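Hi U.,

Before I forget, here's the chain from the pilot set. I'm dumping it here mostly so it's searchable later in email.
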Amino acid sequence: MVEKKVEIVYDDGDILVVNKPPLMVTTKEGRGDVGTLEDWLLENKKIDLLRSGIVHRLDKGTSGLVLVAKTGMALKNLKEQFKKRTIEKHYWAMVSGEVPREGKINMPIGRARYTFGKFGVKVDGKMAETWFKVITKYKKDSKIYSLLEIELKTGRTHQIRVHLHYLKWPIVGDKLYGGEMVDNLARPFLHAYEMTFLQPVTKKVMTVRCELPNDLEKVLSLYEKI
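Structure:
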């Protein structure tokens, strides 16, 4: 059972950075979702902006940093930073397989034709670029796994999951994209742990981080470092 507790990582008069727990939907988007991050912001921060000021989204199963604007000016500025791709976003992901030390993939992503809610590498999709490097390699039952640090250069839906699946290194716990299911892990081993951006008013370069959550730490404890 994953505890859905939102942690405030940074807060000032213009912006808020939160650590979204796994299995929490980011925004409502007109659906019937309840208990979303947007709901939490409405209740706890009362930000009078579209989507309660949420600037970008994480997949439901992905934990980690979400940037929130508290004023209209901050929202406009942060959206512009995302559009210009000047915001740096770093993730941790654990995949099945022995990955080379580092690499990058630049392949277009679009909706899967026959499976609702799934995406894939498609010639007519939107270009997407992902950089990765190996942090640690692990072994369990003679199988090799790699813990990766990932930097997103673009922000397509399911981008990291789709690209790693395409490279034949599916993310552990990612059932939708062929990932290996591990013990009681109820979601993909994917965590947005670091973000660097300009504070929209002071223009100061800011880097915020959050640690690996407990459910992913427990998974790592099941493997042997090699």
